[in-house]
Write a structure and sequence with these properties.
The protein is mainly alpha-helical. It is built from one helix and no strands. The chain has a domain at 37-89.
């Protein structure tokens, strides 16, 4: 009976030791994966911040370009009207009445 108890006790201790080793290795792998995920999240957050700043800058530049395009379009329309009047009447308007051509 004593041998059975000692054998069962040794088997239980060995199972507990093996279980603890397996658990500790799994916990270490999970911690390493968590650390890698956190660093990737930090890098992606930084990239997102940079892209948002770049997007804001590009939107600002786009607004400037659109405003310039509208300005040039209105000048082009004025010049087209002046040319059409000159064709119809045969008179060229004075230079002060004409807008400057776009650059």
């Amino acid at each position: 009976m004593g041998r059975v108890v000692v054998t069962a006790l040794i088997t239980a201790i060995a199972a507990i030791a093996i279980g603890w080793l397996v658990w500790s290795r799994m916990a270490a792998r999970a911690a390493a994966a968590h650390a890698a995920d956190q660093s990737e999240i930090a890098a992606l957050t930084e990239q997102r911040t940079q892209l948002q700043a770049q997007n804001e800058q590009l939107q600002s530049e786009l607004k400037k370009v659109q405003a310039e395009e509208e300005r040039l379009s209105s000048i082009n329309n004025e010049l087209a009207e002046a040319l059409e009047k000159a064709r119809l009447t045969g008179k060229i308007p004075p230079p002060s009445a004409l807008p400057y051509p776009p650059k």
